[in-house]
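Regression test attached.
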Amino acid sequence: MVGREKFQRALNELENKLIELGTFADRALKNSIEALEMKDTGRAIAILEKDREANRLHEEINDFAIMLIATQAPVAIDLRRIITGIKMADNIERIADFAVNIARSTIRIGQEEHIGILMQVKKMYEITSEMLKMALSAYHDEDTQKAKKILEMDDKVDALYDQTVWDLFEFRQQTPQGTMQIIQLLLVCRYLERAADHVTNIAEHIIFLVKGKRYSLNN
Amino acid sequence: MGGKNMAAVTYSANPVEVFVTSREETATSVAGKNAVFSVRDLNLWYGEDHALKNINLELKENEITAIIGPSGCGKSTFIKTLNRMVELIPSVRIGGNILYRGKDILAKSYKVEDLRTRVGMVFQKPNPFPKSIYENIAYGPKIHGIRNKKILDEIVEKSLRGAAIWDEVKERLHENAYGLSGGQQQRLCIARCLAIEPDVILMDEPTSALDPISTLKVEELVQELKKDFSIVIVTHNMQQAARISDKTAFFLSGEVIEFDRTKKIFSSPADKRTEDYITGRFG
């Protein structure tokens, strides 16, 4: 294929920026769960401070995409790639925000003795993180099969979330003095469940990118 | 007599000498609802060069159809076939049918003069006559026998208003048309085309010689005109096709690769070649 090498390079650059933001969000999520597990409030504070980087990358992607639309008059697959880029960046940036929220909960829990649901939280995180990695790889490979697989994984996160909410409810009845921690852990689970939903959104955008049609995976 | 799809017509440079080997006057098949032009199995050769290959298209009433494709793909040839201007080129042979309002314009008995009264054309470069603005517009109606000054005045004003240029020229109707800017000259040519009250307007890259502001004025005008006319526009400007047309046909090497709603063509074309062309990967 000939022509528009410079534009093609710009599209590759957009992809690289998205992968960079996605990798950042994934790492932030990992750090936030590890900080929670180890009651490491110092590390949690560092996550809050580093979030600026995600915001900067998010803005950079949006500005870059706007510049490409304004100067390159993209159509068809090129236009879908840029629009998908903007939407993916929004979703990924939100996932990075959830990592920040989890870090805040970690700070609030402080050095309190953990009630026994961390394994479930970790499991939710592991699936969500795997979903995010798979979404980035699906985007790179324009692979709709991987995108559809993300839906199945989201179902697992949802099921774990429902189960964990019930477990936390039980703990609340057994240990009323642990209410503060239970609320924070409930929030952490909610953040992870929402993060997985945002990955599902990304998967839908990838299907739109490849097929040019909209699919709703959340129904 | 050959089968109706295989009918071959040979035209010489002089339309009077048109030689038709086989053609039914009216094709038996019925044109689609609201179809202005129904093109059926159209093939065209310049000598040995097969310039249009099995073209099948329906051009609908009050729609703007954009024809896009790389240079030499046959888009200008195609549009010039719709008013039979293509037969001015020696050694042209045409096969197939072009039904205009249900009648085959390639039929021996179809008068080309009638066709060109119904199907007007605007060209790439503005080509006003070296006459006054008024005379440019009145020329066609006069040829059609209108002599009444009052009626001619009305036609001139209506046509110039229709082409969105009246306010710019109403004080200087008797000045030479060459004194107008390129964009004004092109709108004058569109007004001249409107003066004979055509049914279809063919436009062969009407804005390629114009500056961006004049281009936008002509584009807006074209969209206004579709209320009353059916328009076929050849354009190299992809964004123009996307902005103004209802349907788009992508031509490549004499074939129609894809013909669909413009929205579909420019958002998710079905054919990879269309996608490669509109995204600027070749052409």
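Expected vs. actual: identical. The CA atoms of residues 114 and 165 of chain B lie 28 Å apart.
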